[in-house]
Amino acid sequence: MNQSILQVRDLRVYYHTNDGAVKAANGVTFDLRIGERLGLVGESGSGKSTIAMALMRLIKPPGKIEGGQVLLDGVSLLDLPEEKMRQMRLKEIALVAQGAMNSLNPVMRVRPQIECALRDHDVKLSSIALSDRINELLDMVGLRRNVADLYPHELSGGMKQRVCIAIAICLRPKVIIADEPTSALDVVVQRQVMETLKTLGKALGASIILIGHDMGLMAQAVDRIGVMYAGDLVETGSVAEVFADPIHPYTKLLIASLPTLERKEAARGIPGLAPSLRNRPVRCPFQPRCPVAIDRCQTEEPILREARPMREVACHLYSSESSRVMEAS
Ligand code: SF4
Questions:
Q1: CA-to-CA distance for 279 and 71, rounded, in angstroms?
Q2: Phi first, then psi: what are they for 88, rounded to 5°?
Q3: Which of 301, 317, 326 has most ligand 1 atoms within 8 Å of CB, for mutation?
Q4: Backbone angles phi and psi of 273, in degrees to 5
């Protein structure tokens, strides 16, 4: 599972406004390994959805991909002509966008909506083969075959989300990005949809990037986790290690704020607010909220680096220079 299918390097996405550039993704770097499920978590505005849209090259003005590299199986997505990139979507990399279930065409039955996705990519199948393919897709996402003949308003939220997932996998992509795939669904259905995604990933041999803010749900669904804060990736590691032993002060507070069966006291949030992403000062973006900040945090932005084997963190307390300072003190 160590070979990367997707390499993201120093990805920068800015939204240009009259008051300056909003740096929604500020140099994000990570790898997605073959067959891996990677969770990107963070609060609203941390840049998770921007990353999803940038990987699909679907950022619209005033947003712009300012720099960086996205390699999908060795192909540089940011350098492809638009038509070639259009062909890559669904076929190589697919997105179940946030609120996707509301994007189904309300006046079309499910069958033609899946057919459209296939035809858009020049898939030429006889009507029998097309029908078989649609049945197979519905089976894969756990829907009854008669769903193909229903309109979206005849489906529950969970069923609509499964239809969107069926469309996303119709060309067997190598990478599936699911942005908040369970928002607006009840808790039981959330778990079922997550299970479906897990099963599909395995069945297709696809890698999955799961985007969300529910750490508990994420813990059950992914192998590795990346914590985002203010447009930066601040910690990565296996889900078991990050939950058992978080390194970054933000991750520590995030995990400490999760409800547990044992904890009796009232839930604790993280004091303070996330910083504005416009006109960011050069400092650690978490510095105003960080309970363990040191002087250096006010003048220097930490970069993501390996703190332990297979664990990366962006925090001065764990850079080698700061480690020496801490050991000496
Ligand atoms: Fe806190 Fe400094 Fe680490 Fe930022 S770099 S998380 S302010 S200790």
A1: 29
A2: -70, -35
A3: 317
A4: -120, 155
Pairing of strands 232-238, 305-308: unpaired
Nearest CA to ligand 1 atom 7: 287
Q: Which atom of ligand 1 is nearest to the CA of 287?
A: 7
Instruction: Name the residue with the closest Cα to ligand 1, atom 5.
Output: 315
Residue in this structure with the two tokens 């009840």, named with its chain if needed: 186
Nearest CA to ligand 1 atom 8: 293
Q: For residue range 134-175, list pLDDT tens digits in order.
A: 999 999 999 999 999 999 999 999 999 999 999 999 999 999
Confidence of residue 272 (pLDDT cuts 50, 70, 90): confident
H-helix or E-strand spanning residue 129: helix 127-140
Which residues fall within 8 angstroms of residue 240, CB to CB, at 6 or more apart?
A: none
Of the pLDDT bands very low, low, confident and very high (cuts 50, 70, 90), residue 299 is very high
Tens-place pLDDT, residues 93-107: 999 988 888 889 999
Around ligand 1, the residues with Cβ closer than 6 Å are: 248-249, 284, 286-287, 290, 292-294, 297, 302, 315-317
Cα–Cα distance between 234 and 318 in angstroms, integer? 12
| 13: its two tokens | 């996405």
- Asked if 286 contacts 252 with a C-beta cutoff of 8 angstroms, the reply is no
To test the ligand 1 pocket, which listed residue (253, 270, 297) has its Cβ within 8 A of the most ligand atoms? 297
Closest-CA residue to 154 (of 203, 209, 110, 206)? 110
Q: What is the pLDDT of residues 26-47, one digit of tens each?
A: 999 999 999 999 999 998 889 9
In this structure, what DSSP letter does residue 105 have?
-
Pocket test for ligand 1, best of 270, 280, 286 (most atoms within 8 A of CB): 286
Q: Is the pLDDT of residue 320 over 70?
A: no
Dump strand ranges (E) for 113-223: 175-179, 207-212
Give the position, in ligand 1's atom list, of the atom nearest the Cα of 285. 4
